[in-house]
Amino acid sequence: MTFIAVKAGFPRGILLQELEDIFGFIIELDKLKGVLRKTRPIGLQRYENSAEHSWHVCMAAIMLREYANEPVDIDRVIKMLLIHDIGEIDAGDTIVYSAETPQVKAEEEAGLRRVLGLLSEAVAQEYIDLWLEFEAGESADARYAKSIDRIPPLLHNLHGDGLSWKENAISEQRVLNLNSRIKDGSSAVWDSLESKLKDAFSKGLLS
Amino acid sequence: MTFIAVKAGFPRGILLQELEDIFGFIIELDKLKGVLRKTRPIGLQRYENSAEHSWHVCMAAIMLREYANEPVDIDRVIKMLLIHDIGEIDAGDTIVYSAETPQVKAEEEAGLRRVLGLLSEAVAQEYIDLWLEFEAGESADARYAKSIDRIPPLLHNLHGDGLSWKENAISEQRVLNLNSRIKDGSSAVWDSLESKLKDAFSKGLLS
Fold it and tell me: Do the chains contact at B16 and A51, CB–CB below 8 Å?
């Protein structure tokens, strides 16, 4: 998608204020680097933050796109994943196994609206709509994006002694139940990960 | 851009190996979260890593796209920025003031080729080409992406007492000279940041 540099004809005062607002937004985003998740990047002795996670899922989405169950618009998927955790700047990260309550989602939405509120109303609305679509998980793009969002934490646990599952007392059955949603976006990816999980459980990953 | 799930007709054995390779690539990417840069996110008492930086520049690119000097394909710009630092997994991060030597660039390219080499040759080549385009900085997309890549570290220094410039003994003149390349992608953004820099220097940011 090509964007023309449409700002050339705008009055300078309006432009400068808008640019200031965007710089303020970019600065605000730094806070997502301080929001800690529940898993650790493989090989690192610290918890992952939501900003680096957001980058990681974008890369995973690109490389797995041909395994999506349905045609997806990868550029929309990437934008969804870039912004999907911004609300955590205010709401913090909640492990997915307890995050799917109306209260947690309302806090994340309020946070997203507050941070995007630093931008113009039209831009904010575009990304609020994209987040709502992601959360609803009813479009092909959202189904695929939500599948992808599960993959790195699952790999972190598989390659990191199930650390976050043990620390948060998540049973094998809950792991399998919750992550089975991956098949809504990609049954090929879920088939592969499900057999890896069952194999790891049989070898005592969580015992 | 819409991608059809083209893998449905492939023999299962080939699919499974390719999927394993992609999982291996996703796992390898975790290492970029351990590559430390020279600036600190605003408000955090640690150095930034190249993975979270990659996310941050994607967000900045989206929100500043209307300020690009020339029409840009924002989806290509985002992909460039998502992958632009992957070579640092092997090469490490070098502050931009000393990074632009043939040796540093060769190390980054070798790293990129090694990591992308975990994927199929066609996919690897697509992203190597995108990185080479970014590094050459001769297309409108690359000029804009390279401009954007400078913005968060500049804001980090402006809002963080010029920490990395002081720690690395970068003079005011070098800051202005190097970052003036921002105007190749967006003269409006550079006009604004240049006056912020001069104002901060006049108030003693680096003294």
Answer: no
